[in-house]
Write a structure and sequence with these properties.
16% strand, 15 helices, 2 domains, 6-stranded parallel sheet, 7-stranded parallel sheet, globular, Rossmann fold, alpha/beta, 13 strands
Length: 382
């Protein structure tokens, strides 16, 4: 048999920054080990593409232009490339994937992240929901996302779950590198709580700072919350929380000096230093109907560096944090319990968390994710 061919269509690729962007990059990279892969992605993606994966670029903005142009390019590339599988990297590109599959006789699959199965805008319900239902296969990033797909009317036998992956560190950062990280960012010898991610309403950092951090600081005055990330400029369906608004609630609570913003960190070693300098990862995602957290890749990334996570048990986070092994989950919206869970980890001197968390993260290695995804797709290649 000739080498299988996969056309992968997504808006979410580097140079955009985020979990979905890392995931789609690694999907293409891992599938290229088994098949010939071509990508359709946003402007700038070709310069950062996985090795041996050609990219056809489409202007990112405005969104309607991207949607129309990506669909047109998908059909054109599919007719030339003759893929066996057309994979939509999210529900957003499901219509383009379906059209490309019909134009080339391929099978159409979509990887759903959560929000792309929950949007209730009339236009999305009219065009995107039917396209998702028409897919030959639907891959969900978590059990809650799979449930959202079933609620859309996707047949249960079409749905499979493949959790996103993580890059496992080959070795810990050196003590010198960690000390340099602290010095450059003026972190002193404080115990660090770490938040990594976009500053959006769903991520809930402002509410955490207002309703949980004061209690943590009162009980552990040497604690500093370090924030890696910023308000997104290219995120869909996301309302933002600015640094200024978060700092304002910290100042109002008298804990402004216990908050430090580092901005977006894209260098892997620098981000590893952030994880390994911290004692606890804070992931206070809010439970918002219609805006679910599909998985929570950052919790797995933290665990890979031996860092436990404290989070609300909402959306796909229940698949990304193992209670007692990689952190603690508490009832959504219960900020007192969230603070208590954080203090419980801070008070634990057993040094058992890094070993437990790293062991949990090992099952999410990108190679493991890639093999699971390939096992699903190859059964649909005739």
């Amino acid at each position: 048999m000739t080498q299988p061919r996969i056309l992968h269509i997504t808006r979410n690729l580097p140079p955009l920054v985020g979990g979905m962007e890392r995931l789609n990059w690694h999907i293409a990279d891992e599938l290229s080990r088994h098949a010939q892969v071509e990508l359709i992605g946003p402007s700038g993606a070709a310069a950062l593409r996985p090795p041996a994966v050609p990219v056809t670029e489409v202007a990112l903005r405005p969104l309607p232009r991207f949607l129309l142009a990506s669909a047109w390019q998908a059909v054109a590339v599919a007719r030339r490339f003759q893929p066996h599988i057309v994979l939509a990297g999210s529900g957003l590109t499901a219509p383009a994937a379906w059209l490309a599959a019909r134009a080339s006789g391929a099978r159409a699959h979509v990887y759903l992240h959560g929000l792309d199965a929950a949007v209730q805008h009339p236009a999305y319900r009219t065009v995107w929901h039917p396209a998702i239902r028409r897919m030959d296969g639907v891959i969900a990033n978590s059990q809650p996302t799979a449930e959202l797909a079933r609620n859309l009317g996707v047949a249960a036998e079409k749905i499979r779950i493949v959790h996103p992956g993580v890059t496992l560190p080959t070795a810990p950062q050196s003590p010198a590198a960690l000390q340099d990280f602290r010095q450059r960012h003026q972190l002193g010898n404080k115990r660090l709580l770490l938040s990594v991610g976009r500053l959006t309403t769903r991520k809930g950092l402002r509410e955490f700072v207002q309703q949980a951090l004061p209690a943590i600081v009162q009980a552990a005055p040497d604690t500093l919350l370090v924030v890696v990330g910023d308000a997104p400029a290219d995120s869909l369906h996301a309302s933002v929380q600015t640094r200024a608004s978060i700092q304002a609630v910290a100042d109002a609570a008298g804990i402004g000096q216990h908050l430090r913003f580092l901005g977006v960190i894209t260098d892997p070693q620098e981000l590893a230093c952030a994880y390994e300098s911290a004692t606890l990862h804070i992931f206070p995602v809010r439970h918002l109907p219609g805006d679910p957290e599909g998985f929570g890749m950052v919790a797995i990334e933290a665990a890979a560096h031996g860092l436990p996570t404290v989070a609300f048990a909402t959306g796909g986070i229940v698949d990304a944090v193992a209670e007692g092994q990689s952190g603690h989950l508490v009832t959504p919206g219960d900020y007192l319990s969230l603070a208590q869970a954080a203090l419980q980890v801070l008070a634990d001197d057993s040094n058992a968390w890094p070993t437990r968390a790293s062991a949990f993260a090992a099952q999410f290695a990108w190679r493991v994710m890639g093999e699971k995804l390939w096992d699903i797709l190859q059964t649909d290649i005739s």
